[in-house]
């Protein structure tokens, strides 16, 4: 290190810049060595997923996860750990959903594998039985609007296979889950079934939030697995007597108290400037929330642990935030931004990891062109660890609130997305589907970027 | 397309080059759409792994796999399909290996999970029982050379965690598997146990070939799982009475007949120039050989299928080669090069996929600087499909023979390597650990590179 210091003092700015890049590269190498050899993120994730499991806002598991988060941040060496209270929605799934095809034909028909969509109303104990209108687009819904009254609308839009980045497929298809119920209710539908947003090869249904349009009646909405969606489609096309029975006992209870869990390392030089890094602590109830978003939480904690372990003292205050209630409300992210604004805090950068714990490929960014140029200038230092793609515009849902409230530049880790929608919001989002090295390598790249932003600002 | 043609005719060479790049980009997009939506590689792999399974050279499964390869190439639309005979080694594992720690202490000790190394001699039915000398380097072996006579040498070198590209960890550690037996035999060891080349979190032993130095006695060599390696190490350090019993019934039979399986599309313009793409058809006996190297075989066949389906007529003859006996001999690759040389064939490029069916990151290349520059110039056309890393020097083992015999430029698909050594040469290399989209995306990048090399030569 002395050699570099000497060079820096003796020579002009170009050599100085090179020396600085060399020093940064050595620090990031040290960070990578520590995380890849001694990283705790994988073990932390095992505890979160296997001893707590699914942890939807308002559930007892949410409370346990908050306690886990605080304890884990303390163990990682945070200077301070605290809770930030916010009201969160409290939706409960209730009894396991039931669904089946009913037909005048005498053939055996296995039950349909469904999950109620988050925030959906239930059918009540009697369930709903009705004929099915299948549509593959909203245009087709409009064209069939006169047939819909009293029926179940089945949105059977196939997840597109030809986007290389699968989040584009999700962006393309998710409208049916989000607004399909209200658009069908407008024409008198009694329920909707939505083909899962996935190109998995299994039959797991994938849940996720429905967003009701308050001007329309709220009708039950469920997701269906891919194999069952194909089976239902064939049946509807060939059996005029076919009806579907759906029974969901989900309900919305009054809002309850949840918390963002926050751990900090106080900045040495600019303690009143903040660099935020986080994931969301809640997950859907039907899975372990390992990739979504246990991974983002443990990666963020790993950064703090590694900085402490290696004695890397940030200049700005580093805040690790485990956000409440991303999945069906976004209240944690909103509260964090609200308080930051009320306190007139200066936020330099906010990074989220909420796209799975898969092998990292880069970062999505949303900021000014100047800030982007600066962030992209760090690319050569991260390339050895797999981050090369800085082209996508975006940031995490949670830090998005801060971005909109304060204009804070934001980013999100971009892991490889090929496997993500196999497991997203489905029973298969479990610890076993996370690879230790991929998870840790994501943390390495995040730590590298956070270190550089802290050093140079934006 | 007409628009681009017009541009090309009207304007100068820069615009012409752009138009060509646009046309190429459209062709590769078409290739990607076809493979991602209709690709057969995953189903082909299911058949190979689930109906045939492990297929070591000389085994009955090798013969079945050759038949499968020919039938699958024909179904994919190859103009011609043929076999290229070569003699292959015939090593058989025999009865399941046994190993245990024997101690004067009365505590219960579970058996050790081991696999004989490929081409290893067996212990015979009585097995070998001896004290254990643990070493972590060849230097340590030399330092302990006087203690080794009559003992089992235990190479307990930990797979390094801090290489981001895990093949570097493999390159660093594999010497103990390759030459450890003969180096220990030199000092009178009776057997060797080698810590598996893996950073998996399970206890599967990972096999692979041992290379005996013919000037030394051949002694039995086995791989041990990671958890058991740690257990053995602790025992050896703390229990002076500890011995290990090993029984392996493997043996080398006389060489037998195997085949490279080859499918071609005849080149429209230069039928006597060849572009080779392939993987190796053999695999270790203890797994399904899904990633190693069923993936490379089905990806190579996928390219041929896609070109035929889309009517992409190569200018040069495209040869898909499913090589025989990569794992414990390399005889298929050697034979292919020998025949190519004897026939004085003109080989333009040879590409292999033998690093797993994981999400692609680029290509290793081994060729002249001019050829490399040309190959790297294709990068922008492949970047949208995930290939950005063209920096590593290398090519597949099989096409390496051609490279050395004829100087043919060669390459190898570089998939993400984080998961590879979890499953490499172990019982966990099964179909279930291959992701459909990752496998297909590898084929997309290979097809793109092959298309461009065929169009522009090197």
Automatic annotation (TrEMBL), chains A, B:
<dbReference type="InterPro" id="IPR046450">
    <property type="entry name" value="PA_dom_sf"/>
</dbReference>
<protein>
    <recommendedName>
        <fullName>Carboxypeptidase Q</fullName>
    </recommendedName>
</protein>
<dbReference type="InterPro" id="IPR039866">
    <property type="entry name" value="CPQ"/>
</dbReference>
<keyword id="KW-0479">Metal-binding</keyword>
<keyword id="KW-0256">Endoplasmic reticulum</keyword>
<dbReference type="InterPro" id="IPR007484">
    <property type="entry name" value="Peptidase_M28"/>
</dbReference>
<dbReference type="GO" id="GO:0046872">
    <property type="term" value="F:metal ion binding"/>
</dbReference>
<keyword id="KW-0862">Zinc</keyword>
<keyword id="KW-0333">Golgi apparatus</keyword>
<keyword id="KW-0865">Zymogen</keyword>
<dbReference type="GO" id="GO:0005764">
    <property type="term" value="C:lysosome"/>
</dbReference>
<keyword id="KW-0325">Glycoprotein</keyword>
<keyword id="KW-0378">Hydrolase</keyword>
<dbReference type="Pfam" id="PF04389">
    <property type="entry name" value="Peptidase_M28"/>
</dbReference>
<dbReference type="GO" id="GO:0004180">
    <property type="term" value="F:carboxypeptidase activity"/>
</dbReference>
<dbReference type="GO" id="GO:0006508">
    <property type="term" value="P:proteolysis"/>
</dbReference>
<keyword id="KW-0458">Lysosome</keyword>
<feature type="domain" description="Peptidase M28">
    <location>
        <begin position="260"/>
        <end position="436"/>
    </location>
</feature>
<feature type="signal peptide">
    <location>
        <begin position="1"/>
        <end position="19"/>
    </location>
</feature>
<dbReference type="GO" id="GO:0005615">
    <property type="term" value="C:extracellular space"/>
</dbReference>
<keyword id="KW-0732">Signal</keyword>
<comment type="subunit">
    <text>Homodimer. The monomeric form is inactive while the homodimer is active.</text>
</comment>
<keyword id="KW-0645">Protease</keyword>
<keyword id="KW-0121">Carboxypeptidase</keyword>
<dbReference type="GO" id="GO:0043171">
    <property type="term" value="P:peptide catabolic process"/>
</dbReference>
<dbReference type="GO" id="GO:0070573">
    <property type="term" value="F:metallodipeptidase activity"/>
</dbReference>
<keyword id="KW-0964">Secreted</keyword>
<keyword id="KW-0482">Metalloprotease</keyword>
């Amino acid at each position: 290190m002395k050699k570099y210091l000497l060079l820096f003092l003796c020579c002009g700015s170009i050599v100085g810049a090179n020396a600085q890049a060399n020093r940064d590269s050595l620090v990031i190498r040290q960070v990578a060595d520590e995380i890849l050899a001694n990283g705790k993120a994988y073990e932390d994730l095992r505890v979160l997923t296997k001893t707590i499991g699914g942890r939807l806002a308002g559930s007892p598991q949410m409370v346990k996860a908050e306690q886990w988060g605080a304890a884990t941040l303390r163990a990682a060496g945070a200077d301070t750990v605290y809770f930030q209270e916010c009201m969160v929605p409290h939706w409960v799934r209730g009894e396991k959903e039931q669904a089946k095809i009913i037909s005048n034909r005498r053939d055996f028909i296995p039950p349909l594998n469904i999950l109620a969509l988050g925030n959906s109303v239930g059918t009540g104990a009697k369930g709903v039985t009705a004929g099915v209108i299948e549509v593959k687009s909203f245009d087709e819904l409009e064209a069939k609007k006169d047939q819909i009254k009293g029926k179940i609308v089945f949105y059977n839009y196939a997840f597109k296979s030809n986007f290389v980045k699968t989040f584009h497929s999700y962006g393309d298809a998710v409208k049916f889950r989000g607004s399909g119920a209200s658009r069908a209710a407008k024409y008198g539908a009694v329920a909707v079934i939505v083909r899962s947003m996935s190109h998995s090869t299994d039959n797991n249904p994938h849940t996720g939030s429905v967003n009701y349009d308050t001007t329309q009646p709220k009708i039950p909405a469920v997701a269906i697995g891919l194999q069952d969606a194909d089976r239902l489609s064939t049946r509807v096309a060939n059996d005029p007597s076919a009806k579907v029975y759906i029974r969901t006992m989900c309900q919305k209870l009054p809002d309850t108290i949840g918390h963002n869990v926050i751990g900090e390392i106080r900045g040495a030089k600019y303690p009143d400037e903040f660099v935020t890094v986080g994931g969301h602590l809640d997950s859907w109830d039907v899975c372990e929330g390992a990739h979504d978003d246990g991974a983002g939480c443990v990666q963020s904690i790993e950064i703090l642990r590694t900085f402490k372990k290696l004695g890397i003292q940030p200049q700005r205050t580093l805040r690790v935030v485990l956000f409440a209630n991303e999945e069906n409300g976004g209240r944690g992210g909103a509260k964090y931004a609200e308080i930051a604004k009320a306190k007139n805090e200066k936020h330099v950068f906010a990074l989220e990891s909420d796209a799975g714990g898969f092998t990292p490929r880069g970062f999505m960014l949303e900021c000014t062109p100047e800030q982007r140029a600066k962030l992209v200038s760090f690319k050569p230092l991260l390339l050895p660890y797999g981050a090369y793609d800085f082209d996508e515009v975006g940031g995490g849902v949670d830090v998005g609130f801060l971005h909109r409230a304060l204009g804070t530049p934001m980013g999100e880790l971009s892991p490889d997305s090929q496997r993500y929608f196999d497991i997203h919001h489905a029973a298969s989002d479990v610890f076993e589907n996370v690879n230790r090295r991929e998870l840790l390598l994501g943390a390495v790249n995040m730590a590298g970027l956070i270190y550089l932003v802290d050093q140079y600002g934006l």
